[in-house]
Amino acid sequence: MKKTLPLLALLGAMLSGFLSAQEARPNILFVFSDDHAPHAIGAYDGWLKKVNPTPVIDKLASDGMLFVNSFCTNSICGPSRAVIQTGKHSHKNGFMNNGNTFDWNQQTFPKLLQKAGYQTAIYGKSHLKGKPQGYDDWAVLPGQGLYYNPDMIFPEGRKRIDGYCTDVVTDLAVGWLRNKRVAGKPFMLMVQHKAPHRNWMPALRHLDLYDDVEIPEPPTLFDEWKDNAPAARLQELEIDRHMDLNYDLFLDLTPEFNQPPSQLRQDRSAWHNMKRMSEEQLKKWRAAYGPRDKAFHEAKLSGKDLVRWKFQRYAKNYLRCVKGVDESVGKLQETLRQLKLERNTIVIYCSDQGFYIGDHGWYDKRWMYDESLKMPFIVKWPGVTKPGSRNTDLIQNLDYAQTFLELAGTKLPEDMQGKSLVPLLKGNTPKDWRKEIYYHYYEYPSVHMVPRHNGIRSKRHKLMHFYQFKDEWELYDLKNDPDELNNLYDDPKHAQLRKRMKARLEKLRKHYEDESDTSVKPDLIKKYRPQS
Ligand code: CA
Fold first, then answer.
1. How far apart are CA 456 and CA 84, in angstroms?
2. Helices H, strands E: what count in the chain?
3. What is the spatial distance between Cα 140 and Cα 148, in angstroms, rounded to a whole number?
């Protein structure tokens, strides 16, 4: 007995130490929206800050750490999510463009978190197709999902849920926190909003928000892309020429107000997204937009005035959708407080890429220009991240998987390609932190006609390579030219910089083992752009 007592005591001490270490592992609440550009977040100090679009997310930033130089690897919905799941670039995880189907059988960070003892759940937009793996509970929107009364796919099947999508997703997550969470087990909860993705339909309570406000215009609203490679002039994402008054902006073009217009394809009309609304919802929608549409028709706008009107309508609807997301972040944090989970839960706000909100005259994303390359990334880790801190290290969505795994205290797989952000969150940037990020976009030919390109960005410079039609390059000094209007690639004064950046691009391409075909295909431009 005398011999076994100290042994038992030792075992007991070890077990309790183990348990307290287990308990100490932080929970992770990862709130992830779709197409929310950093410059549409007040804390990021963009030109939209003036309209105070995100008070709740701004508060999260003032309580935690905001990453100024946060970038995606491939600026489009599905691929960004696949990179986050795997910690691998698109060419490694196989999901290179939205037409692909994600191979859920491959290694993903939620599966590894489960193995490490975490309870995991995901609600909202998956955009990866197929049945999610690595989650103890889930409910995902089919494809892009709908803003009003969306269908959702649950493990047991598909069903319609009445309500506004952002609220529906928030309520599923809150319900999970309250009723399905296993007490004493660390969790990782992903709340993935559809908003503020096109086609921008705000919640009924936000239809009148910003009604009496003039949204400031971006300085590049009337950019003519004079200094860019030809790709910038051959796209189809201009507010002026490509944004549809009815499909994108819900402008009434018919006497019956947004009934299916016979002259438009049904899937390209506003009605395609409105037909899901209830009579009561439609009534409120029409009451808000009807008078605005009437005023528009009476004004008979054209030229730049029409572009300005479209920008206002677009930016307001976009920011109204953002407002719903901002409120969701508040509701989720309030739930953590009520459940006394706040102290040991890391709250992250992030979106899959940036977006053009009239910048360069555009909407959508895809390009390596900063507005769509940047991702918001804000982390509140109570007791660890310094409140109100702003990190300027170069980070990517490639890094999240390893970050989550290090937080869980589990082994980091050697084949992941990112770097854990945990040291950065603790305020200690490793001396050998990356000096450039690597980017590669693949979806061409496709909607919006943004050609394939790759490139690198350092804190100060950016090199972009368009390779499909012929060898075309852009080089920017972001310190002196943040709007990327002066392409320095052919400037003899910057020959050394050009040489250095090209060598770095080649080095990073090899480092990430990107062997994608980047050869010139001269026939492609003739086929898809016969007028060029
Ligand atoms: Ca997106």
1. 19
2. 14, 16
3. 15
- Judged against a pLDDT cut of 50, whether residue 313 lies above it is answered with yes
Q: How far is the CA of 141 from the centre of ligand 1 (A)?
A: 14
- The pTM assigned to this predicted structure is 0.94
Q: Is 399 helix (H, G, I), strand (E, B) or coil?
A: helix
For 259, list phi and psi in degrees, rounded to 5.
Answer: -75, 160
Closest CA to 355 of 368, 371, 370: 371
What residues have CB less than 8 Å from 470, skipping those under 6 apart? 520, 522
Residue 475 C-alpha to ligand 1 middle, in angstroms?
25
List pLDDT tens digits, range 505-519: 999 999 999 999 999
459 CB-side CA count, 13 A: 9
349 neighbors 192 (Cβ within 8 angstroms)? no
pLDDT score, position 252:
86
CA of 80 to the centre of ligand 1 (A): 8
- Token representation of residue 389: 């801190």
**What are 10-23's pLDDT values in tens digits?**
554 454 444 444 44
3-state secondary structure of 340: coil
Distance CA 217, CA 232 (A): 20
Q: How far is the CA of 88 from the centre of ligand 1 (A)?
A: 18
Sign of torsion, CA 66 173 207 306? positive
If you measure from the C-alpha of residue 317 to the centroid of ligand 1, how many angstroms do you get, rounded to a whole number?
16
Centre of ligand 1 to C-alpha 367, Å, is 12
Domain extent listing, the chain: 232-313, 439-528
**Å from CA of 353 to ligand 1 middle:** 6
What's the 127 CA to ligand 1 centre distance in angstroms?
A: 9
Contacting residues for 392 by C-beta, under 8 A, at least 6 apart: 68, 69, 459
Task: Name the residues around ion ligand 1, CB cutoff 5 A.
Answer: 34-35, 77, 352
Distance CA 377, CA 57 (A): 11
490 C-alpha vs ligand 1 centroid, how far in Å? Answer: 33
> CA–CA distance from 308 to each of 65, 235, 249, 362 (Å)?
35, 20, 13, 12
111 in Cβ contact with 87 (< 8 Å): no
pLDDT reported for residue 240: 96
Architecture in CATH of 439-528:
2-Layer Sandwich (3.30)
